[in-house]
Protein backbone atom coordinates (compact mmCIF):
# COMPACT_ATOMS: atom_id res chain seq x y z
CA UNK A 1 0.00 0.00 0.00
CA UNK A 2 1.20 3.54 -0.72
CA UNK A 3 0.71 6.82 1.03
CA UNK A 4 1.16 10.28 -0.39
CA UNK A 5 4.12 12.42 0.56
CA UNK A 6 4.98 15.86 -0.79
CA UNK A 7 7.92 17.86 -2.08
CA UNK A 8 8.10 21.66 -2.10
CA UNK A 9 7.46 23.47 -5.35
CA UNK A 10 10.70 24.74 -6.92
CA UNK A 11 11.03 28.53 -6.72
CA UNK A 12 8.79 30.26 -9.27
CA UNK A 13 6.96 27.03 -10.17
CA UNK A 14 3.85 27.69 -12.27
CA UNK A 15 0.74 26.11 -10.77
CA UNK A 16 -2.45 26.68 -12.69
CA UNK A 17 -4.94 25.74 -15.37
CA UNK A 18 -5.29 26.40 -19.08
CA UNK A 19 -8.04 27.41 -21.48
CA UNK A 20 -8.36 28.41 -25.15
CA UNK A 21 -10.29 31.42 -26.39
CA UNK A 22 -12.58 29.73 -28.90
CA UNK A 23 -13.40 26.92 -26.51
CA UNK A 24 -14.68 29.15 -23.71
CA UNK A 25 -15.43 32.68 -24.99
CA UNK A 26 -18.45 32.08 -27.23
CA UNK A 27 -19.57 33.75 -30.46
CA UNK A 28 -16.17 33.93 -32.11
CA UNK A 29 -18.03 34.62 -35.34
CA UNK A 30 -15.11 35.71 -37.52
CA UNK A 31 -13.02 32.58 -37.04
CA UNK A 32 -12.55 29.68 -39.42
CA UNK A 33 -13.91 27.30 -36.79
CA UNK A 34 -17.17 29.24 -36.46
CA UNK A 35 -17.71 28.83 -40.18
CA UNK A 36 -16.84 25.15 -40.06
CA UNK A 37 -19.19 24.52 -37.13
CA UNK A 38 -22.08 25.89 -39.17
CA UNK A 39 -21.25 24.04 -42.40
CA UNK A 40 -23.37 20.85 -42.65
CA UNK A 41 -20.75 19.27 -44.90
CA UNK A 42 -18.17 19.45 -42.12
CA UNK A 43 -20.10 16.96 -39.99
CA UNK A 44 -19.52 18.83 -36.72
CA UNK A 45 -21.64 17.38 -33.90
CA UNK A 46 -22.62 20.77 -32.46
CA UNK A 47 -21.49 24.41 -32.77
CA UNK A 48 -19.75 26.37 -30.03
CA UNK A 49 -22.38 29.16 -29.89
CA UNK A 50 -22.07 30.88 -26.46
CA UNK A 51 -19.53 28.33 -25.20
CA UNK A 52 -18.91 29.22 -21.52
CA UNK A 53 -19.61 32.91 -22.14
CA UNK A 54 -16.14 33.57 -20.76
CA UNK A 55 -15.79 36.56 -23.02
CA UNK A 56 -18.10 38.29 -20.53
CA UNK A 57 -17.42 36.13 -17.45
CA UNK A 58 -13.63 35.90 -17.46
CA UNK A 59 -13.55 37.69 -14.11
CA UNK A 60 -15.64 34.92 -12.53
CA UNK A 61 -13.26 32.31 -13.92
CA UNK A 62 -10.22 34.10 -12.54
CA UNK A 63 -11.89 34.69 -9.18
CA UNK A 64 -12.48 30.96 -8.82
CA UNK A 65 -8.98 29.96 -9.87
CA UNK A 66 -7.39 32.40 -7.44
CA UNK A 67 -9.72 31.36 -4.60
CA UNK A 68 -8.94 27.70 -5.24
CA UNK A 69 -5.22 28.35 -4.77
CA UNK A 70 -3.85 28.44 -8.30
CA UNK A 71 -1.12 30.94 -9.05
CA UNK A 72 -1.10 30.85 -12.87
CA UNK A 73 -3.66 31.02 -15.67
CA UNK A 74 -3.00 30.26 -19.31
CA UNK A 75 -5.59 31.75 -21.66
CA UNK A 76 -5.76 32.50 -25.38
CA UNK A 77 -6.51 35.61 -27.35
CA UNK A 78 -8.38 35.34 -30.62
CA UNK A 79 -6.74 36.61 -33.81
CA UNK A 80 -10.12 36.81 -35.55
CA UNK A 81 -11.44 39.22 -32.91
CA UNK A 82 -8.36 41.42 -33.00
CA UNK A 83 -8.06 41.46 -36.82
CA UNK A 84 -11.55 40.64 -38.15
CA UNK A 85 -10.64 41.85 -41.64
CA UNK A 86 -7.10 42.01 -43.02
CA UNK A 87 -5.17 45.03 -41.84
CA UNK A 88 -7.92 46.34 -39.54
CA UNK A 89 -7.24 45.92 -35.83
CA UNK A 90 -9.91 46.33 -33.18
CA UNK A 91 -8.83 48.68 -30.41
CA UNK A 92 -11.81 47.52 -28.36
CA UNK A 93 -10.75 43.86 -28.53
CA UNK A 94 -7.14 44.70 -27.72
CA UNK A 95 -8.41 46.65 -24.70
CA UNK A 96 -10.63 43.70 -23.72
CA UNK A 97 -7.70 41.29 -23.60
CA UNK A 98 -5.57 43.83 -21.78
CA UNK A 99 -8.28 44.02 -19.10
CA UNK A 100 -7.99 40.25 -18.76
CA UNK A 101 -4.24 40.52 -18.20
CA UNK A 102 -4.76 43.23 -15.61
CA UNK A 103 -7.53 41.21 -13.98
CA UNK A 104 -5.27 38.19 -13.65
CA UNK A 105 -2.48 40.27 -12.13
CA UNK A 106 -4.89 41.91 -9.68
CA UNK A 107 -5.91 38.45 -8.44
CA UNK A 108 -2.35 37.22 -8.02
CA UNK A 109 -2.51 35.04 -11.14
CA UNK A 110 0.47 35.10 -13.48
CA UNK A 111 -0.92 35.22 -17.01
CA UNK A 112 0.44 33.03 -19.78
CA UNK A 113 -1.00 34.36 -23.04
CA UNK A 114 -1.41 32.10 -26.07
CA UNK A 115 -1.45 34.06 -29.33
CA UNK A 116 -2.77 31.24 -31.53
CA UNK A 117 -4.81 28.27 -30.32
CA UNK A 118 -6.05 26.46 -33.47
CA UNK A 119 -8.35 29.16 -34.88
CA UNK A 120 -7.55 31.77 -37.52
CA UNK A 121 -9.59 34.59 -39.08
CA UNK A 122 -11.80 33.49 -41.95
CA UNK A 123 -9.99 35.87 -44.30
CA UNK A 124 -6.65 34.18 -43.42
CA UNK A 125 -8.08 30.77 -44.22
CA UNK A 126 -9.49 32.14 -47.48
CA UNK A 127 -6.01 33.28 -48.50
CA UNK A 128 -4.78 29.71 -48.10
CA UNK A 129 -3.92 29.60 -44.41
CA UNK A 130 -0.43 28.90 -43.16
CA UNK A 131 0.93 27.88 -46.56
CA UNK A 132 -0.28 31.00 -48.40
CA UNK A 133 2.22 33.51 -49.74
CA UNK A 134 3.01 36.02 -47.00
CA UNK A 135 1.32 34.02 -44.22
CA UNK A 136 4.31 34.32 -41.90
CA UNK A 137 4.41 38.09 -42.31
CA UNK A 138 0.66 38.31 -41.63
CA UNK A 139 1.05 36.33 -38.42
CA UNK A 140 3.96 38.49 -37.28
CA UNK A 141 1.94 41.62 -38.04
CA UNK A 142 -0.81 40.32 -35.77
CA UNK A 143 1.70 39.39 -33.06
CA UNK A 144 3.15 42.90 -33.15
CA UNK A 145 -0.32 44.40 -32.80
CA UNK A 146 -0.72 42.42 -29.55
CA UNK A 147 1.92 44.59 -27.87
CA UNK A 148 -0.59 46.59 -25.76
CA UNK A 149 -1.94 43.30 -24.37
CA UNK A 150 1.32 41.67 -23.34
CA UNK A 151 3.76 44.57 -22.93
CA UNK A 152 3.40 44.93 -19.16
CA UNK A 153 3.04 42.17 -16.59
CA UNK A 154 2.90 39.11 -18.87
CA UNK A 155 5.82 36.81 -18.00
CA UNK A 156 5.08 34.03 -20.54
CA UNK A 157 3.80 34.08 -24.12
CA UNK A 158 2.99 31.02 -26.23
CA UNK A 159 3.17 31.77 -29.95
CA UNK A 160 1.32 28.74 -31.36
CA UNK A 161 -0.45 25.92 -29.55
CA UNK A 162 0.25 22.38 -30.77
CA UNK A 163 1.71 23.20 -34.19
CA UNK A 164 2.13 19.48 -34.83
CA UNK A 165 -1.64 19.06 -34.68
CA UNK A 166 -2.07 21.95 -37.13
CA UNK A 167 0.20 20.09 -39.56
CA UNK A 168 -1.58 16.78 -38.85
CA UNK A 169 -4.99 18.29 -39.56
CA UNK A 170 -3.69 19.85 -42.77
CA UNK A 171 -2.29 16.48 -43.81
CA UNK A 172 -5.57 14.74 -43.07
CA UNK A 173 -7.48 17.38 -45.08
CA UNK A 174 -5.20 16.97 -48.10
CA UNK A 175 -5.60 13.21 -47.93
CA UNK A 176 -9.37 13.55 -47.71
CA UNK A 177 -9.50 11.79 -44.35
CA UNK A 178 -12.74 12.33 -42.44
CA UNK A 179 -11.39 11.07 -39.13
CA UNK A 180 -8.33 9.86 -37.32
CA UNK A 181 -7.11 6.24 -37.53
CA UNK A 182 -7.91 3.85 -34.65
CA UNK A 183 -4.43 4.53 -33.23
CA UNK A 184 -1.80 7.13 -33.99
CA UNK A 185 -2.12 10.26 -36.11
CA UNK A 186 -2.42 11.05 -39.81
CA UNK A 187 0.75 12.05 -41.65
CA UNK A 188 1.45 15.77 -41.14
CA UNK A 189 1.52 18.03 -44.18
CA UNK A 190 5.19 18.86 -44.73
CA UNK A 191 4.50 22.28 -46.25
CA UNK A 192 2.38 23.26 -43.26
CA UNK A 193 5.08 21.99 -40.89
CA UNK A 194 7.66 24.27 -42.51
CA UNK A 195 5.21 27.18 -42.48
CA UNK A 196 4.28 27.02 -38.80
CA UNK A 197 7.92 26.54 -37.77
CA UNK A 198 8.84 29.63 -39.80
CA UNK A 199 5.93 31.56 -38.28
CA UNK A 200 7.02 30.60 -34.78
CA UNK A 201 10.64 31.60 -35.34
CA UNK A 202 9.59 34.92 -36.86
CA UNK A 203 7.19 35.60 -33.98
CA UNK A 204 9.86 34.78 -31.38
CA UNK A 205 12.23 37.22 -33.07
CA UNK A 206 9.58 39.94 -33.17
CA UNK A 207 8.57 39.41 -29.54
CA UNK A 208 12.13 39.43 -28.29
CA UNK A 209 12.80 42.61 -30.23
CA UNK A 210 9.94 44.45 -28.54
CA UNK A 211 9.57 42.59 -25.23
CA UNK A 212 12.97 41.21 -24.16
CA UNK A 213 11.72 40.39 -20.65
CA UNK A 214 8.94 38.06 -21.82
CA UNK A 215 9.72 34.34 -21.93
CA UNK A 216 8.56 33.02 -25.31
CA UNK A 217 7.87 29.45 -26.40
CA UNK A 218 5.31 27.15 -27.96
CA UNK A 219 3.56 23.93 -26.99
CA UNK A 220 3.71 20.47 -28.55
CA UNK A 221 1.12 17.68 -28.38
CA UNK A 222 3.03 14.69 -27.02
CA UNK A 223 1.55 11.32 -27.97
CA UNK A 224 3.97 9.25 -25.82
CA UNK A 225 4.91 6.77 -28.52
CA UNK A 226 6.05 3.55 -26.85
CA UNK A 227 7.96 1.02 -28.94
CA UNK A 228 7.24 -2.66 -28.58
CA UNK A 229 10.36 -4.87 -28.64
CA UNK A 230 12.01 -4.67 -32.05
CA UNK A 231 10.00 -1.63 -33.16
CA UNK A 232 12.35 1.07 -31.87
CA UNK A 233 13.33 2.40 -35.31
CA UNK A 234 9.77 2.19 -36.60
CA UNK A 235 8.70 4.26 -33.60
CA UNK A 236 11.43 6.86 -34.12
CA UNK A 237 10.56 7.22 -37.81
CA UNK A 238 6.85 7.48 -37.03
CA UNK A 239 7.33 10.00 -34.24
CA UNK A 240 9.76 12.41 -35.88
CA UNK A 241 7.43 14.20 -38.36
CA UNK A 242 4.53 14.11 -35.92
CA UNK A 243 6.37 15.39 -32.83
CA UNK A 244 10.15 15.59 -32.72
CA UNK A 245 10.57 18.09 -35.55
CA UNK A 246 8.45 20.54 -33.54
CA UNK A 247 10.41 19.93 -30.34
CA UNK A 248 13.65 20.48 -32.25
CA UNK A 249 12.26 23.75 -33.62
CA UNK A 250 12.00 25.06 -30.04
CA UNK A 251 15.74 24.95 -29.42
CA UNK A 252 16.81 28.40 -28.30
CA UNK A 253 13.32 29.30 -27.00
CA UNK A 254 12.83 30.41 -23.40
CA UNK A 255 10.69 27.35 -22.64
CA UNK A 256 8.71 24.59 -24.32
CA UNK A 257 5.20 23.46 -23.42
CA UNK A 258 4.61 19.73 -22.90
CA UNK A 259 1.02 18.55 -23.45
CA UNK A 260 0.04 14.92 -22.95
CA UNK A 261 -3.02 12.86 -22.11
CA UNK A 262 -2.40 9.23 -23.09
CA UNK A 263 0.05 6.94 -24.89
CA UNK A 264 0.36 5.22 -28.28
CA UNK A 265 2.08 1.86 -28.59
CA UNK A 266 4.00 1.18 -31.81
CA UNK A 267 4.68 -2.25 -33.27
CA UNK A 268 6.55 -3.38 -36.37
CA UNK A 269 3.59 -2.36 -38.55
CA UNK A 270 2.86 0.94 -36.80
CA UNK A 271 0.43 2.14 -34.10
CA UNK A 272 -1.52 -0.46 -32.15
CA UNK A 273 -4.93 0.35 -30.62
CA UNK A 274 -5.29 -0.01 -26.86
CA UNK A 275 -6.77 -3.33 -25.73
CA UNK A 276 -10.54 -3.63 -25.71
CA UNK A 277 -10.57 -4.01 -21.94
CA UNK A 278 -8.45 -0.88 -21.30
CA UNK A 279 -10.09 1.87 -19.29
CA UNK A 280 -10.96 4.74 -21.63
CA UNK A 281 -11.84 8.38 -21.12
CA UNK A 282 -14.74 10.24 -22.73
CA UNK A 283 -12.47 10.97 -25.69
CA UNK A 284 -11.90 7.20 -26.01
CA UNK A 285 -8.22 7.61 -25.11
CA UNK A 286 -6.59 5.02 -22.89
CA UNK A 287 -6.53 6.07 -19.23
CA UNK A 288 -2.80 6.49 -18.65
CA UNK A 289 -1.82 9.07 -15.99
CA UNK A 290 1.90 8.33 -16.35
CA UNK A 291 1.88 9.82 -19.88
CA UNK A 292 3.05 13.25 -18.74
CA UNK A 293 6.20 11.83 -17.18
CA UNK A 294 7.14 10.03 -20.40
CA UNK A 295 6.39 13.19 -22.38
CA UNK A 296 8.61 15.32 -20.16
CA UNK A 297 11.48 12.85 -20.36
CA UNK A 298 11.27 12.48 -24.13
CA UNK A 299 11.05 16.23 -24.69
CA UNK A 300 14.07 16.78 -22.46
CA UNK A 301 16.01 14.08 -24.34
CA UNK A 302 15.29 15.78 -27.68
CA UNK A 303 15.73 19.42 -26.75
CA UNK A 304 18.44 19.15 -24.10
CA UNK A 305 18.77 20.37 -20.54
CA UNK A 306 18.99 24.10 -21.27
CA UNK A 307 15.35 24.67 -22.29
CA UNK A 308 12.88 24.76 -19.37
CA UNK A 309 9.88 22.44 -19.59
CA UNK A 310 6.37 23.54 -18.61
CA UNK A 311 3.43 21.15 -18.58
CA UNK A 312 0.96 23.45 -20.32
CA UNK A 313 -1.84 20.87 -20.69
CA UNK A 314 -2.58 17.62 -18.89
CA UNK A 315 -5.91 16.18 -17.83
CA UNK A 316 -8.74 13.78 -18.47
CA UNK A 317 -12.22 13.88 -19.98
CA UNK A 318 -14.49 12.10 -17.53
CA UNK A 319 -17.88 12.41 -15.87
CA UNK A 320 -16.47 10.75 -12.73
CA UNK A 321 -14.55 13.38 -10.79
CA UNK A 322 -12.99 10.77 -8.51
CA UNK A 323 -11.21 9.38 -11.59
CA UNK A 324 -10.08 12.92 -12.41
CA UNK A 325 -8.47 13.20 -8.98
CA UNK A 326 -6.85 9.78 -9.42
CA UNK A 327 -5.58 10.75 -12.87
CA UNK A 328 -4.04 13.98 -11.60
CA UNK A 329 -2.52 12.16 -8.63
CA UNK A 330 -0.82 9.69 -10.95
CA UNK A 331 0.29 12.43 -13.31
CA UNK A 332 1.79 14.48 -10.50
CA UNK A 333 3.65 11.43 -9.22
CA UNK A 334 5.31 11.33 -12.64
CA UNK A 335 6.08 15.07 -12.57
CA UNK A 336 7.59 14.76 -9.08
CA UNK A 337 9.76 11.86 -10.26
CA UNK A 338 11.01 13.99 -13.15
CA UNK A 339 11.95 16.75 -10.72
CA UNK A 340 13.69 14.23 -8.48
CA UNK A 341 15.72 13.12 -11.47
CA UNK A 342 16.86 16.66 -12.21
CA UNK A 343 14.64 17.54 -15.16
CA UNK A 344 14.17 21.28 -15.63
CA UNK A 345 10.40 21.33 -15.06
CA UNK A 346 9.13 24.83 -14.31
CA UNK A 347 5.38 24.43 -14.04
CA UNK A 348 2.18 22.40 -14.29
CA UNK A 349 -1.00 23.75 -15.86
CA UNK A 350 -4.04 21.48 -15.89
CA UNK A 351 -6.40 21.10 -18.83
CA UNK A 352 -8.86 22.48 -18.43
CA UNK A 353 -10.03 25.17 -16.06
CA UNK A 354 -13.59 24.79 -17.37
CA UNK A 355 -15.79 22.20 -19.00
CA UNK A 356 -15.73 23.67 -22.49
CA UNK A 357 -16.18 23.21 -26.22
CA UNK A 358 -13.91 20.36 -27.26
CA UNK A 359 -13.71 21.08 -31.00
CA UNK A 360 -17.08 19.78 -32.06
CA UNK A 361 -18.79 18.67 -28.86
CA UNK A 362 -19.47 19.60 -25.26
CA UNK A 363 -19.63 15.94 -24.20
CA UNK A 364 -15.94 15.45 -23.25
CA UNK A 365 -15.73 17.18 -19.87
CA UNK A 366 -12.12 18.03 -19.02
CA UNK A 367 -12.91 20.85 -16.61
CA UNK A 368 -11.97 21.39 -13.01
CA UNK A 369 -14.94 23.75 -12.95
CA UNK A 370 -18.39 22.80 -14.23
CA UNK A 371 -20.40 25.34 -16.24
CA UNK A 372 -24.20 25.32 -16.41
CA UNK A 373 -25.05 25.50 -20.15
CA UNK A 374 -28.13 27.66 -19.54
CA UNK A 375 -27.21 30.02 -16.69
CA UNK A 376 -23.40 29.77 -17.13
CA UNK A 377 -23.07 29.41 -13.35
CA UNK A 378 -19.66 28.06 -12.35
CA UNK A 379 -19.20 25.26 -9.83
CA UNK A 380 -15.79 24.06 -8.70
CA UNK A 381 -15.53 20.27 -8.66
CA UNK A 382 -13.84 18.38 -5.82
CA UNK A 383 -10.87 17.85 -8.15
CA UNK A 384 -10.48 21.63 -8.39
CA UNK A 385 -10.49 21.95 -4.61
CA UNK A 386 -7.90 19.17 -4.30
CA UNK A 387 -5.60 20.45 -7.06
CA UNK A 388 -5.92 24.05 -5.94
CA UNK A 389 -5.04 23.12 -2.36
CA UNK A 390 -1.65 21.97 -3.55
CA UNK A 391 -1.02 25.50 -4.76
CA UNK A 392 -1.91 26.91 -1.35
CA UNK A 393 0.42 24.42 0.30
CA UNK A 394 3.14 25.05 -2.31
CA UNK A 395 3.86 21.34 -2.35
CA UNK A 396 3.74 18.75 -5.11
CA UNK A 397 2.37 15.34 -4.07
CA UNK A 398 3.94 12.04 -4.96
CA UNK A 399 3.49 8.43 -3.98
CA UNK A 400 5.63 7.08 -1.17
CA UNK A 401 6.37 3.56 -0.13
Characterization of the model:
- The structure is a single chain.
- By secondary structure, the protein is an alpha/beta fold.
- The chain has a single domain (12-389), classed as Alpha-Beta Barrel (TIM Barrel).
- The chain is built from 14 helices and 15 strands.
- β11 (309-314), α13 and β12 (345-351) form a beta-alpha-beta unit.
- α9 packs antiparallel against α10.
Give the topology.
Layout: E1 3-8, E2 14-18, H1 21-24, H2 32-37, H3 54-68, E3 72-76, H4 79-82, H5 91-106, E4 110-114, H6 122-127, H7 135-145, H8 147-150, E5 156-161, H9 163-175, H10 190-210, E6 215-222, E7 225-227, H11 232-248, E8 255-260, E9 264-267, E10 270-272, H12 291-303, E11 309-314, H13 321-340, E12 345-351, E13 369-371, E14 378-380, H14 382-393, E15 395-400
Parallel strand pairs: 2-3, 2-12, 3-4, 4-5, 5-6, 6-8, 7-9, 8-11, 11-12
Antiparallel strand pairs: 1-15, 9-10, 13-14
Helix pairs in contact: 7-10, 9-10, 9-11, 12-13, 13-14
Amino acid sequence: MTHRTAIPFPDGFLWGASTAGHQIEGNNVNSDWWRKEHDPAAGIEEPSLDACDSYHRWDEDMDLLAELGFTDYRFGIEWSRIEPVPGTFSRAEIAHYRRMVEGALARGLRPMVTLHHFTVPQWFEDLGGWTADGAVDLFVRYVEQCAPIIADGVPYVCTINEPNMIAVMAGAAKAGDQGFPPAGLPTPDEETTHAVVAAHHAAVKALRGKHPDIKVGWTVANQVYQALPGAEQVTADYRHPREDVFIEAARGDDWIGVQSYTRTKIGADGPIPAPEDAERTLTQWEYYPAAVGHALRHTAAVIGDDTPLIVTENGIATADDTRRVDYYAGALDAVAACLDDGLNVRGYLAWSALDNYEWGSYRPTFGLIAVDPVTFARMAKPSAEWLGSLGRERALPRAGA
